[in-house]
Amino acid sequence: MKDKFFTGKNAELTIEGKTYPLPIIEGTEGERAIDIRDLRKDTGYITLDSGYMNTGSCASGITYLEGSQGILNYRGYAIEELAENCSFVEVAYLLLHGYLPTYDELRHFSYLLGRFALIHEDMIHFFDHFPPNAAPMAILSSMVNSLSNFYPEMTENPLEDIDIIATRLISKVRTIAAFTYKKSMGWPLVYPRHDLTYCANFLNMMFDSPVKPYEINPDVVSALNKILILHADHEQNCSTSAVRLVGSARVNLYASISAGISALWGPLHGGANQAVVAMLEDIYASDGDYEKYIKKAKDPNDPFRLVGFGHRVYKSHDPRSRIIKKACDEVLVTLKVSDPLLDIAKELEEVALNDEYFLERGLYPNVDFYSGIIYRAIGIPSNMFTVMFALGRLPGWIAHWKEMWDDPNWRISRPRQVYVGPEHRPFIPMEDRVEEDHEEPDIY
Ligand code: SDX
Asked: Which among 139, 125, 390, 24 is positioned nearest to 242, based on CA atoms?
């Protein structure tokens, strides 16, 4: 990290009477951090920060979040302007290169997406050996990991040309996602077409059929572009951190992204969009009794959390949620669909945002609260919602992986720990061991 981020000031840490200067650094948007990279070398101490609530893992120039004002910028551009004016492919280019593409740059990038849209025909046989009810995220992570067996050139010279590396993956993951859905329904695969844009191609691969051609609705294509843009990156979230951590061992892009897909699957992370719709369906089935869920969410003894609410960084509104909520209304009008779950979601938001419990904890709807309602309206089944999140997040994951690979000071990520287990004790030969109640370690 360049010295230009050093403010010229130091924090001071005094341990056992000795004072150590710790450099204070400041990012482009005024965020300040204490640089502890020499802490253990100078003091013999490490820090402890479970969940990394207070720890920056890297310096990054890709995305800026400001949690108290609900700001989200990709490479300096506000998410609201990108969602309103760009295609998903344009934003993918921005995240990867750091600037908005010219018409010719975008045309070449789009050409590459078309060129790499097919997957090796032998990979299609993999689908025949997953059980019919296989989880789409499990299929996606294993198929992406398998790609390096079919396209080894992507691992031999990983930074040969980020456009080729990125478009191959962004395009093939779209094909794998659509094929996963078709196979799960037992329907014939629909192959990508060169004459369709990225999102239109995906929708066509998902919903076209030999017996009933799919009519591509430009408003739905526009809504899907917007949703994927909103999911495209989010700085050091759990799955992006997984991509960086795995990639830091010099693992190829495929395996790194496969790790990110696995992390995103979690119900506390990208899996929340599927859980939100399940929660809304439960509320609908109980005649809209959302008070019961609000009460459960507030009960400290109940592990239930109001899914789609809360965020590690945003302690005011998640800007993405507001844009998706507006897009929900537009898509449902366009498709002439009325979804009672949208009404329940809006009522739930209204009640929660007038409740002290949520307000004092800064719990607002996040990106997952409304996204599932749009997917439902488009016809995407709930078990594919997190796959949609992965489709959107892919350019961000690739951009972070590349940013790490480009870093001349890059090291393998290897966090430390504070050991609180048993002190050293003598070995017990098998013949001397006795059955006894072993107490749970008292370390939490
Ligand atoms: C994503 O990091 C990212 O950027 C992620 C993401 C991205 O784009 O990559 O934005 C995508 O993952 C969005 C989040 C999707 N997950 C959910 O919607 C699941 C429900 N939300 C929560 O589980 C929770 O809010 C998290 C996981 C999102 C954030 O967890 P934190 O930061 O660890 O919050 P916390 O556990 O410190 O909670 C602080 C307090 C606690 O209460 P107290 O102990 O202070 O009394 O808020 C409470 C929590 O119990 N709380 C909730 C709650 N979320 C937090 N109470 C009820 N319902 C909730 N949803």
From this structure: 390
